[in-house]
Design brief:
Length: about 500
């Protein structure tokens, strides 16, 4: 067996990961995923090892709660057989490996740049020369949007090929802005600096990425968080989920010109994020999550305050939801718009809500549980049509579910315990993988330490990395005027992609 089976947030020695040649590595990982829809690749990346590149592949099994980790050593001049030819879920991972290390995949179907960050192998290649797909035709036309965006989001370019108003093809290119955030985890040695970096990976997922880093760091240091700390993390994750889902319901209403829904859902987001400010002094929860400590213990008084907030919020949310989902003009814009099939979702390896909208059960809270989700006995909410309607329905139902979880949690608030600081350094020559289900989907952080226990590699994967291709596929055969509602119903992250 050329892989090792680990659990979420488990730290192992690097030497415990079996190493094989690429042919064996390829055959094994291909066999692990092919024909097994409950397995998917949560991370696949490389790092320099002398004159060679070491590849690490991490396959999650959602039924056994295992993560299957394997590695191989290749030289950058090697031409490798591509997973992506048969398993499209690997396409973006392999493209990143290609641009970072110059490894060529001889049969990759779409070997284009992912980011062209500063650590790319060929510095002469720039994102400005991205080779967009095009069709030479007198009847078809191209529509380019971006990379300078009309709103306040970050840069990304959308290239449509249309026949009149009908979209035949959309290619999305990101990679215009980089913070080098993975390298900053290596360069910044203080734990507070690293915890702050985790919060800055994606500004709408401060809690999700913060909890992922905290779990990983605690595991590598052999530290076990107290009950009250995990209580706060679980509660904060569900509050973040409510806040973003409600805001996105507002955005969906805006994109179909339903002003009442836009205004009411937009207003309902405010008391949730205002409560976060009452709790930790920040409306998007910066500073709340820290490794090895409960930064802002959740008290009985805060519990009473949150209960009052939810008692006012819930009936207003339910009333507005009933109006939206019984409005024929809204449903006509949601239903059968922006379809992604279960077959395509499985092939391209989508995660989170984008998977669950096609009846693909992919939710780390149940498949690889963490914090207090085992106690909550979380059941993922699944839809099956894969359209805008499924995506907005999931947002509504997950808000309702999160409200139940929060009420369950605050009914039994654990007493604050004395913070015991992390005193041990990370284990030397070790590997750890942490998975968290953020509101958008599966977040994965991987870390490797050197012989001294210093961070050697820090690899981040935001769920958007998996899901951008699904957005490109969903607009085919839709009118170009449908793109805004399709885009908002996904609400993917530019910053989470352009690390």
């Amino acid at each position: 067996m050329n892989y090792i089976s680990i659990k979420n947030n488990q730290t192992i020695l690097l030497s415990d990961i079996p190493e094989s040649n690429y042919e064996s590595f390829f055959d094994m990982n291909f066999g692990l995923i092919s024909g097994h829809p409950a397995r998917h690749c949560v991370n696949y990346f490389g790092y320099k090892a002398g004159n060679n590149v070491k590849l690490i592949c991490c396959i999650a099994d959602d039924t056994t709660h295992e993560i299957l980790v394997s590695t191989c050593l290749v030289h950058k001049t090697h031409e490798l057989e591509s997973f992506s030819k048969e398993l499209l879920c690997f396409e973006k991972f392999e493209r990143e490996i290609h641009e970072n290390f110059g490894i060529n995949y001889i049969d990759h179907l779409w070997l284009k740049p992912v980011r062209y960050a500063n650590n790319r192998d060929d510095k002469s290649q720039t994102i400005a020369n991205y080779p967009f797909f095009s069709i030479d035709s007198e009847e078809l036309h191209e529509v380019g949007v971006g990379p300078i965006h009309a709103g306040i989001i970050e840069p990304g370019h959308f290239r449509f090929i249309c026949n009149g108003e009908q979209i035949l093809h959309l290619e999305i290119q990101l990679g215009y802005q980089h913070r080098g955030i993975e390298q900053l985890f290596i360069n910044n040695k203080k734990l507070l600096q690293r915890a702050t970096l985790a919060e800055d990976i994606a500004g709408d997922t401060v809690v999700g990425h913060g909890v992922t880093f905290a779990h990983l760091w605690e595991s590598m240091c052999g530290y076990e968080a107290q009950l009250d700390t995990e209580f706060s993390r679980t509660l904060a994750l569900e509050l973040e989920r409510i806040a973003v889902h409600v805001g996105d319901l507002s955005g969906a209403c805006t994109d179909i010109a339903y002003q009442l829904g836009s205004a009411v859902f937009g207003r309902l987001r405010t008391p949730i994020i205002n409560f976060l400010q009452e709790w930790c002094g920040n409306r998007i929860a910066k500073g709340l999550i820290r490794p090895g400590r409960n930064q802002f213990p959740f008290t009985q008084e805060l519990g009473e305050r949150l209960k009052h907030v939810l008692d006012v919020f819930e009936p207003e949310f339910n009333e507005m939801s009933e109006k939206l989902f019984s409005l024929s003009s809204a449903l006509s814009r949601f239903e059968r718009t922006g379809l992604v099939s279960n077959e395509d979702a499985t092939k391209i390896g989508v995660v989170g809500m984008v998977a669950r909208m096609t009846n693909l059960n992919r939710d780390i809270r149940s498949s690889h549980p963490f914090s207090l989700y085992s106690e909550l006995a979380h059941q993922p909410i699944l839809k099956r049509h894969g359209d805008v309607y499924s995506r907005v329905q999931i947002r509504r139902k997950e808000v309702e579910q999160s409200l139940q979880y929060i009420r369950t949690l605050i009914a039994n608030i654990p007493a604050p315990t004395e913070n015991k600081s992390i005193t041990d350094a990370p284990k030397p020559s070790s590997f750890c993988l942490s998975l968290v289900e953020g509101w958008r989907g599966e977040i994965c952080h991987c870390a490797l330490t050197d012989k001294k226990g210093d961070l050697m590699i820090y690899k981040i994967k935001d769920p958007s990395f998996h899901n951008w291709l699904a957005l490109a596929l969903c607009v085919r055969n839709n009118e170009i005027s449908d793109f805004p509602i399709c885009n908002k119903s996904f609400n993917l992250s530019y910053s989470g992609h352009d690390l």
